[in-house]
Description:
four-stranded antiparallel beta sheet
Amino acid sequence: MTTTVKKPKASAKRKIISRVALSLVGLLVAGALVFVAIPSPVDPVKWIAPTAPDFEAEGPWQQNDKLSSAQLVTDAPHFPEFITFDKEGQLYTGDSDGKIYKVPFDAQGNPGQAEVFADTQGTPNGMMFDADGNLIVTDVQKGLLKVSPAGEVELLADSVDGEPIYLANELDIAKDGTVYFSDTSNYGKVSFKEMAENKPHGRLLKYDPATKQTSVLLDGLYFANGIALSADEDYVLVAESYHYQMTRYWLAGEKQGTADIFAENMAGFPDNVTRDAQGNFWVGIFTTRLAFADQMHSSPWLAGLMAKVPQALLNGASAPVKHGLVAKYSPQGELLESWHDPEGTLYGITTAVNHNGYLYIGTAPGGSEGVYRVPLSQ
Length: 378
């Protein structure tokens, strides 16, 4: 006996599809409601960010292509956060895997093969030579370090006032050997949650090599980053990346011990700051302004909601814009000029160092890879 199985009619199929679709929509709505109901890990503070500078308008922020012809110096360090030079003119830079590289130059100024100078077993960011030829390093994971000319690593400081140094980032060294450096955030890492929260967790620290003591000069900074002393060492700058500004802490004079804003409403997130022979400051802008971040700051509810999204899902949204940018400021805080790569061949810039007729460029994860340079005579 043969049994004939009747196929469902088209209308029956549509009903099945509709029920499945409604079930999926219901699950999505329920999931969204649960997501909204979950308490945010942060309690954001409202901030109306200033309108970003216009790259099309005439003035020092106006777009150009001065960085577009950048030459690769070395790609041995993938992400050279900071760049410095020794007395012989050799370049030193760190990488995110802990290695510190040395790059020699020939008599014509051409770069040679990069070689590993030391390994901090951490993440070396800022570095500068002291008067004795030691390389002083701020390491994100380790704290403040000293690397001997032979490449031996020694810990100088990993705590201050009984608290850990959470994220040692950048530094500058005074003529008397005093080290000024940033402790970026007590989050201990770069976190979107901190940006969403919009509260100041960074500090400016001071290390005295004579007493081997570390002290806090200034706290309440919005992602404390680049550090640079003035030519006369009467003040020290610290970049506050999350508020697009640089703060000046006075070390001498009538304002000693106080702080004020040196530069504000920058066209992006300022990273490292270096001083040239004329006393001007060069600032690497890691990324130009992110419109969604400014919008988020104006709505604590939205910021709290976004803070619940896993960091991995936000990495793309918060990646640096493919627009290379460096800013140059006078000792008085006047923006003198900006250097751009609007095509984004060179981007994610952390450092710009004026040295021997070139501007040397460093980057961080998310940006271009390797050390670059462009002629200053443009």
